[in-house]
Amino acid sequence: MLDEILPTRKIGYLSPLAVIDNAAYEWYRLAPKGWMALFLSVGTTEFSGQEMDRIFAPLDSYLDQLMGRHIDLTLQAGTPLAVLMGIDKHDRMMAHIEEYTGKPATSTTQSVVRAAKHLGLKKIALVNKWSVPMNKVLGDFYAREGIAVCGASTKEMHPADFVKIKADDHIQMAYELGKQAFADNPDCDGIYLGGGTWLSEPVTRLLEQETGKYVVCNQTAQVWDIQNLLGEPTPIKGSSRLLARE
Question: Please, which residues have CB within 8 angstroms of residue 88's CB and are 6 or more apart in sequence?
Fold first, then answer.
């Protein structure tokens, strides 16, 4: 009865922040019809290694809650979280999630790196609100896939501050930093527009149209990666080049 309205896929979404707004809005603008995201907040309040230990201490409890809702895949959302853990701890956590749930798992960091590799990027510039040490570790994630970070256009901010920025101001900031990254790194193949708190997918499309180069953002990379992991690589027309599969 009414099968056509039932979700076809359920994605367990471990969200970094307490209030989930733009990430949910972007998800339902971009995800294939019938896909549902089950958002579970881990309540990140600051960017530090100690904070990562605190918020992921009850990881199995989070997974139990999501598994109780019959998820098809787990997404550890938020690039800063993986960066603050470091590559080894991140990889161990992802392996544990897959073993514990018996389902595929990915992270925002894995998604954006895989997307850049798929697009053939060799030199990428970073655009985000993170610190120099955080971007250095992010560069290590890219480097192990043969992608060099050739520069960064950033405006470092504390999570408590950037979550208060209005959506239109966030879009403007993303666009200006993106333009600056292309101007400062003319030899880059594309940029990574990092951060799930701003509405970056529209900016991604605009920058791609203006520069003719690729722009990877969290939202498009996550949907693209999850499609592939679930064996459903369907083009999403009208989106960025990655999701449109151009």
Answer: none
pLDDT-derived band at 2, boundaries 50, 70, 90: confident
Q: Does position 156 have pLDDT exceeding 90, yes or no? A: no
Output the 3-class SS for 88-148: HHHHHHHHHHHHHHCCCEEEHHHHHHHHHHHCCCCEEEEEECCCHHHHHHHHHHHHCCCCE
Phi-psi region of 20 (alpha: psi -120 to 50; beta: other; left: phi over 0): beta
What is the pTM assigned to this prediction? 0.94
Paired tokens of 185: 């790194």
* Closest by Cα among 161, 162, 173, 133 to 49: 133
Instruction: Classify residue 49 by its DSSP letter.
Output: H
Q: pLDDT class for 1, splitting at 50, 70, 90?
A: low
In order of start, what are the domains of the chain with their CATH numbers? Answer: 3-109+220-240 (3.40.50.12500), 110-219 (3.40.50.12500)
Tokens of 39: 């958002």
Rounded CA-CA distance 177/193 in Å is 9
Per the CB < 8 A criterion, the answer to whether 187 and 163 are in contact is no
Q: Determine the average pLDDT of the residues in 112-139.
A: 96
